[in-house]
Design brief:
Blueprint lengths: L10 H7 L12 H6 L9 E3 L7 H11 L6 E6 L8 H4 L6 E4 L7 E2 H6 L11 E2 L5 E6 L4 H11 L1 H4 L2 E3 L2 H5 L10 E2 L5 E2 L9 H8 L3
Parallel strand pairs: 1-2
Antiparallel strand pairs: 2-6, 3-6, 3-7, 4-5, 8-9
């Protein structure tokens, strides 16, 4: 398993606990590795890239075009499939979407300390994302077989929703909570907002509340 974004370095331990023993996640420049031919050998790409700047688009393009057809599982915000770059970024890969039964909450112990909490609260995790997120999956030539198998054996008890890509999402197959962009503190933005939204414009919108 290759996760190119180190963040706070906890993904190896998390995936090890799930039984995945061979995980490559190191504190190194992912984009430099691409330029220099230093991307490590791997069987599957699994990552939750930074949501800032152009990381989402660049990660999608790498996964779909520069990862030699390997399967990928990307945990991304709900608005990514609406972005103008999306169709060209994933051309040929045709990701499906796996939506968790409940909204994910991202917790970061290190950032909790950086936010200036009182000493007795430091070390507790802090929630770090305002977005609904789900998995964008491309499993290569095994996609159809695995989708059918998952629906037959696991869908009912999982509570998750499997959506067969952007066309199905446009047809209304996403859960209602993923059809709008939900922000912390109760703010909800209309679905049209994220289509052209940058993190900067989102920050400006939040200043009104």
């Amino acid at each position: 398993v290759y996760d190119p974004f180190y963040c706070e370095g906890s993904v190896v331990a998390h995936l090890n606990r799930l039984g995945l023993e061979k995980v490559y996640n190191r504190k190194e420049d992912f984009y430099a590795a691409q330029r220099e031919g230093g991307v490590p050998a791997h069987d599957v790409l699994v990552t939750n890239p930074p949501f800032s700047a152009d990381h989402l688009e660049r990660t999608l393009r790498f996964a779909a075009h520069d990862n030699h057809g390997r399967p990928f599982l990307l945990l991304l915000p709900n608005f990514v499939w609406r972005k103008k770059y999306y169709e060209t970024a994933v051309e040929g890969a045709s990701p499906v979407f796996l939506v968790p039964a409940k909204r994910y909450t991202f917790w970061s112990p290190v950032r909790a300390e950086l936010r200036g909490r009182p000493e007795h609260e430091r070390g507790r995790a802090a929630s770090t994302t305002p977005f609904e997120c789900f998995w964008y999956l491309s499993l290569g030539p095994w996609t159809e077989e695995l989708v059918q198998g998952w629906r037959r054996k696991h869908e009912a008890q999982s509570g998750c929703t499997l959506v067969l890509g952007a066309d199905a999402a446009r047809a209304g197959e996403l859960p209602e909570r993923c059809a709008t962009l939900h922000i912390l503190h109760g703010l909800t933005l209309e679905p049209s907002f994220p289509q052209g939204a940058s993190m900067a414009s989102l920050a400006l919108a939040l200043q009104k509340y």
